[in-house]
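Practice record 12: protein with adenosine-5'-diphosphate.
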Amino acid sequence: MARFAENNWRMEQNYGFNSTLEIDAEKLQFMWGKVRTGMRSEIGEVAYKNWVQPLTLLQLNNTSVQMSAPNRAIRDWVLSRYGDRLRKLWVEQCPMIKAIEIIINNAEPAEKKKPFSVVGGKDITSHKPEIENISDLMAISAPLDTRYTFENFIVGKPNELAFAAARRVAESEKVPFNPLFLYGGVGLGKTHLMHAIAWHITKKSPGKKVLYLSAEKFMYQFIRALRQRDTVAFKDLFRSVDVLMIDDVQFIGGKESTQEEFFHTFNALVDQNRQVIISADKSPSDLEGLEERMRSRLGWGLVVDIHPTDIELRINILTAKADQLKVKIPQDVLEFLAHKITSNVRELEGALNRLVAHSTLVGREINLPNTQELLRDLLRSADRKITIDEIQRRVAEHFNIRLTDMHSPRRARVVARPRQVAMYLAKQLTQRSLPEIGRKFGGRDHTTVMHAVRKIDDLCIGDSAFSQEVDLLRKMLEQ
Ligand code: ADP
Ligand code: MG
C-alpha cells in the first residue's frame, strides 16, 4: 500500500532505523504517542477517553506489542471493537510489529483509575466491592459519558417527546411505563438520553443498581456465560438490577438463544416492577429477526421515536456546543453547517469540533470560506453515503461472481474471498457495526466479519498486488 511504504520511509528518515533493528523504550513510547493520536482521531474523543486512554504501554516482545488494561472489561472491549485499528496503527508505525497483546493489570492503584462505570451511584472503581455481584456488574456495565446529561440535551420538536418520556422515567418514584422504548436513526441522541437517565437516577437514588449496556455486550456476556457454564450467575446478576438499559437492541435480532434469554430477563424484571429502557434504530414492529412475542412485548410500555433533526434544532445544538467549547462562531457559519450537515447530530458535532480544533491549532479565523474549505471532504461524504448493497454489487462485478453469492453460504474460495473483501470494505467505508454487516451478508455472525477484516488486512500486508486491487475498489466506491 502506498501509505504503508511512505510510513516506512518516514520512519527511517526520522529515527534512523529500519524495521529489523532494535527499538528502544523511548522510540516505542514515541510510537505509542502516535498510535494514541491516531486512535483518538479515528474513534473520537469519548471512546478514546473511555477505552484507549486507560491503556498503558508495557513492552515490545519480539514482534508483539504488549499493553495493559486496568480491567477485563476494558481489555475485552478494546480487543473486540478496536483491536484491528490498534494493530494497524502499530503496524503503520513499525512494520515489524505483527500482533498486539493486552494484559490485565490488577496492580494499578484504584485512585489512579478513571471512573469506569456507575453502579448504585458510586464510582465503583474507587470502592471495594460490597457484594461479589457488584464487581461483575462493573465488568459488564458500560461507562457513562459525563457529558450526556439532561442539561446538555437540546430539546426541539423532533425529540421533545422522547426527552419528556426519558425525564419522566428518571424522575418518577414509581415505574411510569415499562419498558420505555426509544427508537430513531443513528446519532440522534438515544444513547445520550439513556445515559442522562442513568446519571439522574444514580444521583437521586445512590442505592439503586443501574445497569447500562449495549445489546452487543449483552449478547457477548450471555455467550460467555454459556461457554463457561455459568448461566445461573448471569441470570442472577441481570435480575438483581433496579434499572436495566439495553442500547441498540436491533443487534439481538436473529440470535435465537440470546433473544430467548433477553426475553426472560426482560419479563422477570418487568414482573418485579423494575424499570427497563430499550433503544433501537427501528420501532418494535419493524425490528427484523425478532420473535413475534418479543416484538409485541417490547411495545407494551411507551414507544417513542426521535425524529431526524430539523434546521432549528441543528442551529440550537450548534450554538449550545459552541458555547460549551467557549468559542464564538459567526452566525453564517452555524447556519451553513446546519444546512449542509443534516444526517445526524454526531456528524454535526464532528464538523464543529474539527473546525474549532483546526482554528486553535493553526490560528485560523473561523469564517465561511475557511469552513467551506476545511470541511470539503466531510461535506462531500455528507452528500453521498456508500451503502453495503453498493459495495456488494461493485465487488461482485469486479470479481465476476453473482451478487447472490454475497449472501449465499457457499464457501468456495472464488466466492468466499470476494465476499471477505466486500465485508472489509463495508467495515471501512460505512458506519455499520460488525453484526449489521454480518446480517447483510446472509445473516453471518459478527465474528465472521471480524475474521474477514483481519484476513484481508493480512493479505494486503503480504501481497501488494492484492492490496492495490482492494485500494482500487475502495477508490471506485468513494468516487
Ligand atoms: P444515538 O445513540 O441515537 O446514535 P447519540 O446519543 O450517541 O446518538 O448522539 C450522538 C451525539 O450527538 C452525542 O454526542 C450526543 O451528545 C449528541 N446529541 C444528539 N442529540 C442531541 C441533542 N438533542 N442535544 C445535544 N446533543 C445531542
Ligand atoms: Mg447510540
